Amino acid sequence: MVNFDKLFRLVGCDRDEIWSDTLFQLAGSYRFSQVFYSINVNKQAPFSSALVYSNYSPLWLKIYGDAYWNICPIVKHCMNSNMPLIWEHHTFKTRQELQLHKIAKVYGLHKGIAFPIHGAYSEFGILNLVLNPAKTAPSQLELDKMIADWALIRDYIFESSKRFAQLKQHDPSEKTLLTRRELECLQLVAEGKSSWDASVICKCTEATVNFHLSNIRKKFKVNTRQQAIVKAMQLGLIFPEDS
């Protein structure tokens, strides 16, 4: 079960050290021992310009950034796909890639799940979660559950990290973009209501609710309703504890 309290804490953090600690604690609750999160202005930008939050060994981060970032198969996958990647030994195929994985294992990076991040303004990022090698490997069912949860959590991480990355500041006019009915639908979805639930409460059709949510995504230039929820929360338009 996704811990929404921690997700809302991420959104509300105004200090990056508290934000990163919250991220690491959230990952730990899923048996991930290490986290690597990076976000950059686009795919072409060098690793050195990325905003990075990680509890990797600082020495490994330097080795990786200097020698392996450009040849890492995890990075290549994330640049060309929106799908999560379960990576392990067989992911690394060339001599250089196998050398990369051999060294990475010295620092506890045996197996994990990587989530690509592609923002509406060409931002590119990676959320890499490392499974704890000291614990029993999760079953396929458990891995599926982790992927489902973190596909959602990824959106909150990306949107809430923007205030620290300063990749794009919010335009003040964005606060006036949404209509009253759009805000009403988004608030209900933020509270965990389905489109059908919201349609009953708003006394309209489910298709109308989905139409409003689609308009919101277009206005906010985001890809998912979860990203729209996070952005609206950051703008102070909706509130997670409202009922």
The 3D shape can be described as elongated
CATH class of the largest domain: Alpha Beta
Order of secondary-structure elements: HHEEHHEHEEHHHHH
Number of strands: 5
Low-confidence stretches: none
What structural class do the secondary elements suggest? Answer: alpha+beta
Give the second-level CATH assignment, the architecture of the largest domain: 2-Layer Sandwich
Percent range for helical residues? 40-55%
What is the number of helices? 10
Q: Largest beta sheet, briefly?
A: 5 strands, antiparallel
- Mean pLDDT metric: 88
Please state the CA-atom Rg, rounded to the nearest Å: 19 Å
CATH-assigned homologous superfamily of the largest domain: Transcription factor LuxR-like, autoinducer-binding domain
User: What spatial order of strands do you see in the largest sheet?
Assistant: 2-1-5-4-3
- How much of the sequence is in beta strands? 5-15%
How far do the termini sit from each other? 21 Å
Tell me the CATH topology of the largest domain.
Beta-Lactamase
Whole-number tally of structural domains: 2
Structural topology:
Layout: H1 4-12, H2 16-28, E1 32-40, E2 51-54, H3 58-68, H4 73-80, E3 85-87, H5 95-106, E4 112-118, E5 124-131, H6 140-165, H7 180-190, H8 195-202, H9 206-220, H10 225-234
Antiparallel strand pairs: 1-2, 1-5, 3-4, 4-5
Written description of the protein model:
By secondary structure, this protein is α+β, with helices and mostly antiparallel strands. It folds into two domains: 4-165, Beta-Lactamase, CATH 3.30.450; 172-234, Arc Repressor Mutant, subunit A. Helix content is 51%, strand content 13%. The protein is built from ten helices and five strands; from the N terminus they run ααββααβαββααααα. It has helices spanning 4-12, 16-28, 58-68, 73-80, 95-106, 140-165, 180-190, 195-202, 206-220, 225-234, and strands spanning 32-40, 51-54, 85-87, 112-118, 124-131. A five-stranded antiparallel sheet has the order 2-1-5-4-3, with helices on both faces. Helix 1 packs antiparallel against helix 2, helix 1 (4-12) runs parallel beside helix 6 and helix 8 packs across helix 9. The protein starts with a helix and ends in a 9-residue tail after the last helix. The mean pLDDT is 88.
